[in-house]
Design goal:
By secondary structure, the protein is an alpha/beta fold. The protein is globular, with a radius of gyration of 19 Å. The two termini are 34 Å apart. The chain has helices at 16-26, 43-51, 77-82, 101-109, 128-139, 152-158, 168-173, 220-227, 236-251, 257-267, and strands at 2-8, 31-37, 57-60, 74-75, 87-91, 94-98, 120-124, 144-148, 164-166, 180-183, 208-211, 231-233. The protein is 35% helix and 20% strand. The longest helix is centred in the C-terminal third of the chain and has 16 residues, at 236-251. The structure holds 2'-monophosphoadenosine-5'-diphosphate. 2'-monophosphoadenosine-5'-diphosphate (ATR) binds at residues 125-130, 149-151, 154, 184-187, 197.
């Protein structure tokens, strides 16, 4: 039997095992995917032990996407640019690190929007989740690409020279100029479920607004954006996209996306704003 796992800490609420096992079962593949909590303190010893075992591949999540890198034999070009790995593949006895977060985000976004050279894009947040999304969007060569963050220096450190780093207040003021807005901060998760990172007063109807949070299915940010006539998407398409591309790296083919989506909606209690 093939063996896969997601490693993180905490990991008990991860929906990756349900999603991948549903896809494996749908094609009667002799494979299993589990969640493994790795200790933050003893990470190096525990990961070395897992990599020496009989696993075929891993997903890596918070807080280990950077720390896994020294344990791998090779990195894909995109993982190298991100400085972070979310997918580990065994190939010819070697461990290859890849990052499917950026391409997974783009797969999801393409359900509602194809990015063109006319687009003006605003990314809110400059944490780990933001970087892969930023790099994937930069590759689509939009007319304008701005990262805003509470700590502006973090956004400034992330952007390349043709792009901009702004304050949250500046984003609020010029919000009407953007065609696509992506919320990547942790604001809107249960701990801050009634908060939004910026005021949406100047948001124009028809703007594409994505929040990468999927539980809750509609953050306060997405609810307000919908009220203003935006075209909204939550984080489920990105989650499915990154998972599907990891599956493809391991097996050589894409999984059944509908099976994955159905399973996730079941797990999330049927709520969705896809
Ligand atoms: P992740 O890796 O999931 O992106 P992270 O690296 O901790 O998580 O980043 C969290 C993001 O949410 C950051 O952009 C953070 O802003 P700072 O860089 O200024 O810390 C943002 N964030 C978290 N809480 C926030 C708050 N109360 N107001 C504004 N931004 C917040």
């Amino acid at each position: 039997m093939e063996k896969y796992a997601v490693i993180g800490n905490p990991i008990n609420h991860s929906l990756s095992p349900s999603m991948h096992n549903a896809a494996f079962r749908s094609e009667e593949r002799d494979a299993n995917y589990e969640a493994i909590q790795v200790s933050v303190e003893a990470f190096d010893a525990e990961i070395a032990h897992l990599l020496a075992g009989d696993f075929n591949g891993f997903n890596v999540t918070v807080p280990f996407k950077e720390r896994i890198i020294p344990h791998l034999d090779e990195l894909s070009p995109f993982a190298k640019r991100c400085g972070a790995v979310n997918t580990v593949i065994k190939a010819d006895g070697k461990w290859l690190g890849d990052n499917t977060d950026g391409a997974g985000f783009m797969e999801g976004l393409h359900e509602i929007k194809v990015v063109t050279s006319e687009d003006r894009i605003l990314i809110i947040g400059a944490g780990g989740a933001s970087k892969a999304i930023y790099l994937a969007l930069a590759d689509a060569s939009p007319q304008q690409l701005v990262i805003v963050n509470r700590t502006v220096e973090k956004a400034a450190a992330m952007v390349q020279k043709t792009h901009e780093a702004w304050s949250l207040a500046k984003a609020e003021k010029y919000l009407a100029d953007f065609t696509i807005i992506i919320q990547t901060t942790s604001i809107g998760l249960p701990a801050s479920k009634n908060e939004t990172p910026i005021q949406l007063t100047n948001l124009q109807a028809g703007t594409v607004v994505v929040d990468i949070i999927y539980n809750p299915a509609e953050t306060a940010f997405l609810k307000q954006a919908k009220t203003k006539g935006a075209v909204i998407q939550n984080g489920l398409p990105m989650f499915i996209g990154q998972g599907a591309l990891a599956y493809q790296r391991w097996t050589g083919h894409m999984p059944n996306l509908e099976v994955m989506k159905k399973k996730l909606l079941e797990e999330l209690g049927g709520q969705s704003s896809l």
